[in-house]
Amino acid sequence: MDPAAAASSSRVDRTSLERERRTRFRQLFSHLYSLLPPQAAQMSTQQVLERATMYVNQLRNRVEELKQMNSRLEEESKETRGQVNLAFPFLSIIDLDSTLEVNLITGWNGKFQLSHILKIPMEEGAQVVTAAANCSAGDTIIYSIHCQPISSRIGIATSRVQERLENLVS
Fold first, then answer.
1. Which residues, by range, are in coiled-coil regions (predicted)?
2. Which of 6, 74, 83, 142 is most buried, by CB atoms within 10 Å?
3. Which residues, 6 or more positions from 158, have their beta carbon under 8 angstroms from its beta carbon?
């Protein structure tokens, strides 16, 4: 093979490899963007990476909080085994920048309906993304709701949601 043809072939291979690398990078970047909470506007690559870093740190902090809460609840459960659990209802509201997470743990007394709980964040400017009511061991129900603002400019009135839910559960 003549040296000019070999150089040309080598250049084509490098060009092809670079094109594949960029395509793979775009796919991975798109996947990363899809894992972030919904955004109001398009962001630059740097903004997406900064947002992803912030979001991962928020999630790490949330995992740590939940581990501590779980440990505390397990300790309380050991202490109150065989007794009436007076810790119900337990309400937790976490504002994760562009999403709101509401968790309510209560006894099986029929006092709360998921529809009553969902109504409050919706009236305060939230759009419910997911909602679930799970029965756990014994007579415990766990309500879990994830919301995002209907309008990113207005947001969710988190303090009003918390105040109204506290009034509902008390």
1. 49-83
2. 142
3. 93, 95, 100
Q: Which residue from 158, 159, 135 is spatially nearest to 147, judged by alpha carbons?
A: 158
User: What residues does 103 pair with on adjacent strands?
Assistant: 92, 144
CB-based contact 147:162 (threshold 8 Å): no
Instruction: Report d(CA 25, CA 36) in Å as an integer.
Output: 17
* Residues 22, 105: Cα–Cα separation, whole Å: 47
Residue 4: burial class (beta carbons within 10 Å; 0-12, 13-18, 19+): exposed
Q: Where are the domains of the chain?
A: 1-35, 36-169
Q: Are 155 and 149 within 8 A, CB to CB?
A: yes
Peptide bond into 89 cis (omega under 30): yes
User: What topology does CATH give the domain 36-169?
Assistant: Alpha-Beta Plaits (3.30.70)
pTM given for the model: 0.48
Q: Environment class of residue 147 by beta-carbon count within 10 Å: exposed (0-12), middle (13-18) or buried (19+)?
A: buried
pLDDT at position 89 over 70: yes
Instruction: Determine the 3-state secondary structure of 82 from DSSP.
Output: coil
